[in-house]
Design goal:
By secondary structure, the protein is mostly helical. The protein has one domain. About 50% of the residues lie in helices and about 10% in strands. The protein has helices spanning about 1-35, 70-75, 85-90, 100-105, 120-130, 155-165, 170-185; strands at about 40-45, 50-55, 110, 115, 140. A 3-stranded antiparallel beta sheet has the order 2-1-4. A two-stranded parallel sheet has the order 3-5. A hairpin with a 5-residue loop joins strand 1 and strand 2 (about 50-55). Helix 5 runs parallel beside helix 6. The radius of gyration is 16 Å and the shape is globular.
Length: about 190
């Protein structure tokens, strides 16, 4: 645990240094193309099902309902809620960069199951049943590199449970490298 936390802090500090120009660019892009704050603080379910506030660059209009992407696709056209640059920053995963703050504060890890929205009761219940809730959520994870938005919740939880059972520094490195490749290719992103 101490090794994982140390690596999280080291990688996050390196990420902030290397990515700060990109974060500034994204901040200005969001601020100049839509009204409202550039950052959106989302209530998420963290380790042991405790709620925390997770920052993202705002890709949706102010007042957009806070529901999971898969539910939004069923109920509404998610593109109707996107800001002028929302689709771009989601497809390039630039909206995720402020989550480095959550890693520094200890609410998240670089690698772990993606944090559920506060109202994703089905996902939270399945993760609790499988013991996945004991893990710190991550910016990326095994489920992200194996399907992201395209896989159903039970399969996502099975992948999270696999990570729980097999977690190691080597697996984390594999996930980080796979994530970088998927982000560059824009794989498995629905909008």
């Amino acid at each position: 645990m101490l090794l994982k936390r140390s690596l999280d802090i080291l990688l996050t500090l390196m990420g902030v240094i290397l990515l700060s120009p990109l974060m500034l660019f994204t901040y200005l892009l969001v601020k100049t193309t839509s009204k409202g704050p550039a950052l959106f603080w989302s209530q998420r379910v963290g380790q042991h099902n405790r709620l925390f506030s997770m920052p993202k660059f705002r890709s949706m209009q102010i007042g957009t309902p806070q529901i999971a992407t898969h539910l939004m696709n069923q109920q509404n056209d998610p593109h109707a809620f996107l800001t002028p640059v929302g689709s771009f920053i989601r497809k390039t995963s630039l909206d995720e960069l402020p989550q480095l703050w959550s890693v520094l504060t200890g609410n998240m890890s670089i690698v772990g199951p993606r944090p559920a929205l506060f109202n994703q009761d089905d996902l939270v219940a399945l993760r609790t049943e499988k013991g996945v809730h004991a893990l710190k959520p991550g910016i990326t994870g095994w489920a992200q590199v194996n399907g992201r938005d395209e896989i159903p919740i039970p399969q996502k939880v099975s992948l999270d449970a696999y990570y729980l059972a097999h977690r190691s520094v080597c697996l984390d490195i594999k996930i980080i490298v796979s994530t970088a490749i998927k982000v560059l290719r824009r794989d498995n992103i629905t909008h």
